[in-house]
Specification:
It is a single chain. By secondary structure, the protein is mostly helical. It has one domain (3-103). 68% of the residues lie in helices and 0% in strands. The protein is built from 5 helices and no strands. It has helices at residues 3-8, 16-26, 37-53, 63-81, 84-103. Helix 2 crosses helix 4, helix 3 (37-53) runs parallel beside helix 5 and helix 4 runs antiparallel to helix 5 (84-103).
Length: 107
């Protein structure tokens, strides 16, 4: 099963425009094996958050990107929960990654 196929099994399914943004954010990762879901979703979250952080004009028009980042983080944890022994490690890594993006903000 690929990441794209795994995403298609999520219920409830997200609205069409969010699904399209998720697929766009994951890009070629959609064709990768499902075992890569956690890593690829977290990489997509990083890219979306960095894009938002680096866009000085970001406003409401970028809300879909923020929703996509949230959904991808949720999917990363859903995939990680399938192997409870790694869940704490994934959670710690995800917090660190998001913190790194936020730390690069110019205040």
């Amino acid at each position: 099963m690929t990441i794209g196929e795994w995403l298609a099994t999520r219920a409830p399914a997200p609205p069409e425009n969010l699904t399209a943004r998720l697929r766009q954010a994951l890009g070629t990762s959609l064709a990768m094996d499902r075992s890569e879901t956690v890593v690829r979703c977290l990489e997509a979250v990083d890219a979306l958050l960095a894009s938002l952080r680096d866009d000085p004009e970001a406003g409401r028009e970028r809300a879909l990107d923020l929703l996509a980042a949230d959904a991808l983080m949720t999917y990363a944890f859903e995939a990680a929960a399938e192997d409870p022994l790694t869940l704490a490690e994934v959670a710690a890594g995800a917090m660190w990654r998001v913190g790194e993006v936020a730390a690069e903000l110019e205040l």
